Amino acid sequence: MTLTHPAALAGPASAGPASAGPASAPLLRLVRSELALTLRRPHTLVSLTGFALLPVVIGFGIGAGVTGQVGEPAGGEGRQLLAAASANGLSLPVTVLAVSLALLLPLTVSLAAADAFAGETARGTLRALLLAPVGRLRLVGVKALGVLTVTVLSVAVVSVSSLLAGTLIVGDAAGGGRLLTLSGNTVEIGSALGRVAAAAGWSALQLAAVAAVALAVSAFANYPHVVPAMVMSGAIVSDVLAAIPSLNWLRPWLLTSGWPTLSDLLRDPVPTDNLTGTALIALGYLAAGLAVAVAGMLTRKA
């Protein structure tokens, strides 16, 4: 199958004032072309393959007893999650999502966002897109959809692979397909799968916020490597600011500071206040990032 760039599908720009103006490019064709290009990029395929293998590697590590020392109380949330996964395979999806949120998932969506605009600029194809009869708002929407697809697929691959690895490799210490929570009690399989789905949805929302910020950077950048560098640097700075006691007032507004909240889905009952609050913060970042990306493309010269 030959992939066609969206600019080619859009057709040429208007030849002059005497022209009645070119018809707008069919939206469905643009979306199909963008998704095909996005999903067939080498770094996307490598990332999705890595996300499918990561839970297997962690599952074998847990099954081999590598996490024997991680259950000690001084280990923090990360070690608590690994200890929970070692006791019950149904905890593995939340554990792997939490581990991946620290670096791998944000990096993947940042790379996808970098290709959306900065990558087009570096390849010399953004000018054709801006001159084509696509409409800049529509262009941002199509590009955002492509990045969102990578985001959702990445989270889905991690979640499904973790469920399979947790069931087949780690096993079910609680028995009867129940989830052993961090609170020490067990919940039935239906509730356990609901928590996994909630963890996947919450993680996808957090990553969509990262993707929106990355798109905003990409809309102003000329080189794609700038985008993941700035996004990951921002995440590091956010973690540093969150660790400064005098800046505790700022901590709730930092996107990454709420990511440890994911472990709350392994408690019973589930404390929903922090999960809801961090979801609302992510929605704010998502809206702000998309607004900046739209402004950047509307004001960008062809």
Any key phrases for this structure?
two-stranded antiparallel sheet
Give a written overview of the molecule.
There is one protein chain. With 302 residues, this protein is an all-alpha fold. It has one domain (25-299). It contains eleven helices and two strands, in the order ααααααααββααα. The protein has helices spanning 6-10, 27-39, 42-63, 76-87, 92-101, 104-123, 126-131, 136-170, 189-220, 226-242, 272-299, and strands at 179-180, 186-187. A two-stranded antiparallel ribbon has the order 1-2. A hairpin with a 5-residue loop joins strand 1 and strand 2 (186-187). It is globular, with a radius of gyration of 22 Å.
| Structural class by SSE content | mainly alpha
Helix-strand pattern = HHHHHHHHEEHHH
Which range does the strand content fall in? under 5%
Compute the number of strand runs: 2
Gap between N and C termini: 30 Å
Number of helices: 11
For the largest beta sheet, what order do the strands appear in spatially? 1-2
Q: What does the average pLDDT come to?
A: 86
The number of distinct structural domains comes to 1
The low-pLDDT segments are: 12-22, 66-75
Approximate shape: globular
The major β-sheet equals: 2 strands, antiparallel
Share in helix: 55-70%
Radius of gyration: 22 Å
